Amino acid sequence: MIVSSKLQLSGAFKSATILVSSNLKGGNKPMRKITFMILIVLFVFTLMYAQEKGKVTWWYETVTPENLQGLINDLVKPFENSHPGVEVEITVKDQLREVLRAAIVAGEGPDIVMTMGPAEANRYAKAGLLLPLDEYIRAAGLDSEIPSLFLDIGKVKGKVYSIPKTIESMGIIYNKSLFEENGWKVPTNREEWVTLCEKIKRKGIIPVAAGNSTWRPTNEHYVTVYLNHYAGPENVYKALTGQMSWSDPIFVKAIEMFKNDFKKYWPDFSTYSTMAAEDIVPMVAMRQAAMLVIGTWGFQWMGDPAYWPSDDEWGWAPFPSLNENVPYPIVDIGIGTTLSVNKNSEHPDLAADFLISMFKNKEGLAKLQRDFPGEWVAPVDIPSESIPEEVDPVFVEHIQTQYKLLKEGNYGYTTWTFLGPETWQWCYEGIEKVWLDQMTPEEYMKKWDEIFKKELEEGIVPPVPPRR
Amino acid sequence: MNLASKFTIYALLFIFLAYSIFPLYIAVSASLKDRRELFLDPLGFPDRLHFENYAKAFNSTNLKQAYVNSSILVLGTIAGVLVTAIPAAYALAKINFRFNSLLIGYFFFCTTIPAQLSIIPLYFMFSKLHLTNSFIGLILLYIASFTPFSILLMRSYFVSIPNELLEAALIDGASTWQAFWKIIFPVARPGVITTVVIVSMWSWNNFILPLTFINKQNLTPVTVAIAMLRGKWSAAWEVIMAASILGALPIGILFAILHRRFIAGLAGTGLKG
Amino acid sequence: MTRRGNSKLFFFIGPALLINLVIVLIPSVSTIVLSFFKWDGISKPIFVGFKNFETILKSSDFIAALSHNIIWTVVFLTIPVAMGLIGAELLRKTKWDFLQAFYFFPVILPIVVVGIIWGKIYHPIHGIGKYIGVALLGKPSTALYAIMFANIWAWWGFLCAVFYSALQSIPKDLYEAAVLDGANNWQEFRYITLPGILPTIVFMEIMTIIWSFHVFDWIWVTTQGGPAGSTELLATLMYKKAFYSYKVGEAAAIGVIIAVLGMFATLIYYYLKKQKGVEV
């Protein structure tokens, strides 16, 4: 850090000198004044650069200031306190993925690298830009704590390069008060699902509130659910590993079923395309809609009165099985973001230590469930006693169920974690064509299969560990 | 002018005004609501004026420092653009030389390259030159980005000025430089001022360049600072609105001042035949 | 309008060219070069010749995006320019130029804020969408036009300001003489104003064409190319290819196409100069 900033100083000074001398020689009075102003400002800033200690830099995706403060209090400060002289600097970066790439490829970038998932992290690893983490993980005993599924998926040539910081899964968040008052039960199979949705519709309520206006890939959340809960995780696994074609009739039927459900139980397409979280969550709270088919991240809205402006209670349940051959309950597991260490870091050991410390700090992680719900569900065992009281009990129930099902092997695969980038894009863009009857489910899955096969050949599909 | 045309003229101006103002009203009213009200009733009048949103905006983005940073960037950029673009625009407008058309074409070409892809090679280059994370580097980027347009815009203003004016001055014994400063420039001043406002606005509002090239928290300009209020899935929209209005105000004030003093007030400094 | 020695010219144009060549030319050239390679942005690029261009030009996504861009260009060449001219002329006549600040303010707002404002205006539940029964931004057939309407709101004031300051250099006595000769408002506009600021108008039209192929933020903060690809533009396609699909080579090919389309516009400039002899 110190070395590079010194070089930075000299580079900046060089350019400043050129600028200054050219202006002083040929420029006029206002130019001189402005140039001196700039020079003075530069000088002040370079003075500020000069005081540096051991610093770990981390570029974080967009996050609200309150949540960021929670992270700093619960995980960062404890590390700084136990390592005097070390400072962790978190910079929030809009469009993190793009900015990160430009910086890392140029040999710069932060020490802690935050990526959207193993697919992205593996790419950096393959290009030799990330630090292998195996020794650090073993030394901390984390290899026996973190389920192997999550370490294997971050492996390139047998070495681990990334650790997931959020395990998420799809499910249903529903208006519990509404359900109780109407005597509705959480559906566990296809019939119950259809019956429930019809009952809800008859009351003039939208069964599923959904919208993709701020995040178009939202479409894939539902595709994930229907593929896994109709075709079954075993088949999805086979397709992900190339043992089965994505254009197999069972997948086509799943999409067909989804298309019909979408038309009947979801909002109409143009409304869906203009709604965002701030529209759909209040809809459920105010009983204009009954359910959200959503992932773990949905819990960050549940305690916020702006998103849930009523006194109704909410509940969580896994999505029902849509096919008698598919067991209930299962949840579709995904990885939110992963953390890695930049190979070009000035202090790789320090950065790796910091990274590992966050996963070992059970107390901090437990508190984070209150200060940053839905985003730091780390793949380690957090004793339920340490979870603060203020944390939403429904959320706690969700995390524990998710973890249990995962360990039992009753899990499905989310499209955003387990697909290559082009298949992922086709998944959420193509489905809109199916909804609008511009394409049949068969054609949709056929193209899916073509794109997937190409990516599998090129080795960009993340490695799926075998099911238990 | 009869009454009907007079009426039409003022009516049109008023329609333009309403068209411009109504959405601004929405921004301002959104900035004064609390979040729950904003979600339930985005277009209505706020029931209570929550001025604390502005305080929140100011503090959580460290807006004071951001204002300073943005101002430095704008000042540096304007200085650079004026120094490089005005002479070039004049030369391309009034001096007939061999590469004139070619250079004009080149500057047009500069405006046709999309910016997003340039970021990766630029970052690479700047990283080797140790110009990342510095105001000088960012100002150079701004100057390079905005000069082609500035040259071409000011050139179009210069071109409209009749050559007789220039020739008269030269016959009277003035050098090219004197002719430019004393005769041409005053007439073209509205155009130059407009260019200054536009370049200031673009420098102030630029987002992707400082986002990529500045990583130190205390160097971020206003646009990047405001973006940090946005979370991944949720955002304090009412605070963001307040922050955006606070962020846009300096340029709005700059424009109002410069417009009154330099552009509007010059009706009549035309040429006397 | 006299021939000058090289040294004076160097002094006038040199500084601009210097900064420009280093910072603009190098990325431009690298974009062009990259369009001939297959690159994910991280590992080593592989040379593929014209394959990227082939893939892009044949894909239906590209054709759709191009058609959307052309609609965008046509709309922006006409409506905001007309509004800007009318506005500037009316401000001249009435001398109510304080209105200029109000017309210009929307231009200053960051695009993301304008996107939010208009998103709320169009909203199907809370906005006018409720009254007209259509979610304008959600319907594939109307989304692009809804966005253009919002963009015009935040753009026409810019043109108005540019044209208004160009107006200042037209001698007042021309107008006085015309009025004495009995010219009406339209004739004043058509025979004095328009020719007087013709170079500026032509320049802004050319820039409109060039910029219309660059439009990105407007789509990105509102619909990101949806719904169902109805608002996909060349720049959003390029961005997705570079940063979502990891196909930087194909993205660079789209970038080259965008630049070429822009250069067509500048040919207009040369055409006007050579053929029509118009001094622009």
What does this structure look like?
Chain A has helices spanning 2-26, 29-50, 65-82, 96-105, 118-126, 134-139, 148-152, 176-182, 190-202, 219-231, 233-240, 249-265, 269-272, 277-285, 299-302, 348-360, 362-371, 393-408, 415-418, 421-435, 441-457, and strands at 54-60, 86-92, 112-115, 155-156, 159-160, 163-164, 167-175, 206-208, 289-295, 314-317, 331-335, 338-341, 411-413. With 468 residues, chain A is α/β, with parallel strands linked by helices. In chain A, strands 7, 8, 9, 10, 11 and 13 form a six-stranded mixed β-sheet that branches. In chain A, strands 3-12-6 form a three-stranded antiparallel β-sheet. A two-stranded parallel ribbon of chain A has the order 1-2. In chain A, α3 (65-82) links the parallel β1 and β2. In chain A, α3 runs antiparallel to α17 and α10 crosses α12. The longest helix of chain A has 25 residues, at 2-26. Chain A starts with a helix and ends in an 11-residue tail after the last helix. Chain B folds into two domains: 16-50, no CATH class; 58-266, MetI-like (MetI-like fold). Chain B starts with a helix and ends in a 10-residue tail after the last helix. Chain C is mostly helical. Chain C has a single domain (35-276), classed as MetI-like fold, CATH 1.10.3720. Chain C is 72% helix and 1% strand. Chain C has a two-stranded antiparallel ribbon. In chain C, α1 packs antiparallel against α14 (248-276), α2 crosses α14 and α13 (234-243) runs antiparallel to α14 (248-276). Chains in contact: A-B, A-C, B-C. Chains B and C meet through α1, α4, α5, α6 and α7 of B and α1, α3, α4, α5 and α8 of C.
